[in-house]
Amino acid sequence: MIVSYLLKVAMLGSAWVMDLLLGLSVVSIAVMIERVVFFRKRGNGGDELSDALMDLLERGDVDAAEGLLSRHKAIEAEVFHAAFRWIDGGVEAFSLAVDGEMMKRKRELESGMTVLGTLGNNAPFVGLLGTVIGVIVAFADLANGSSKINMDKVMGGIAEALIATGVGLFVAIPAVVAYNFFQKKITDVEDNVASLSKRICALLAAGEHLPPDPPQDSAVDEDDALPDPTPLVAPVEPAPREVKAAVAPVPERAVEEPSSPDLAPEPGAEE
Fold first, then answer.
1. Which of the pair, 173 or 203, is modelled with greater confidence?
2. pLDDT digits 0-9 by tens, 60-109
3. In terms of domains, do 205 and 226 share one?
4. Count of domains for the chain
5. How far is 119 from 126, CA to CA, in rounded Å?
6. What is the pTM of this model?
7. Distances (CA, A) of 240 to 6, 39, 235, 245, 249
8. What is the rounded distance in angstroms from the CA atom of residue 244 to the CA atom of residue 247?
9. Coil, strand or helix: which one is 43?
């Protein structure tokens, strides 16, 4: 019962398979064109962007770096421009922000890749289905008669079946090539983001472990503050204290010398 129904479906011919493959080829070409335009506009953030951004960050010009990222249309620029909000949180916060932003952009990068992969894998089988249907129709016609007319019809059915296989391969091969090409583009973008993220994190980590600049500033501040204690030294006057200590014994000796003549008349008084 099921075989008879399937035979009736097969006897409809393989023309609809050819139409399906034609539609799939149009979809495949449309996806290829869209991906080419996308990567031409937003897939040009390679070493040039990385070097320019690192040069600005090494000079400490974060505002100029954000301006460069905001003007650039590459996916890498969008990822780091969004992640720069977390740069003050340190290496770990910035790294996590870059990973999160990259995951958001990955959907946009992989748009249409599922279609290309599916067509590349399954279009040959669709063509093979048309071939099988064509062969079934050809043998059914051969079973109905053995005249030369029927033989010509059988040969035409087999040729149509083989054409379906060829069309399936024609749709699948460009889809596979395009899939591999755009997959390489996606990998390049991910590698650029990972490389630049590591370089920025290394710069942040080096800034955290280097000797801090404040001690140098504090030394300058101390030098600038040297004139301030000078008025405090002036009222101390240690020298006058030593002079007073030296002058103090002089009057004592002077007092002792006149005391001797006062003591001299005492023996005279006894006389």
1. 173
2. 887 888 888 888 888 888 888 888 888 888 888 888 888 888 888 888 88
3. no
4. 2
5. 10
6. 0.66
7. 126, 87, 11, 9, 15
8. 5
9. coil
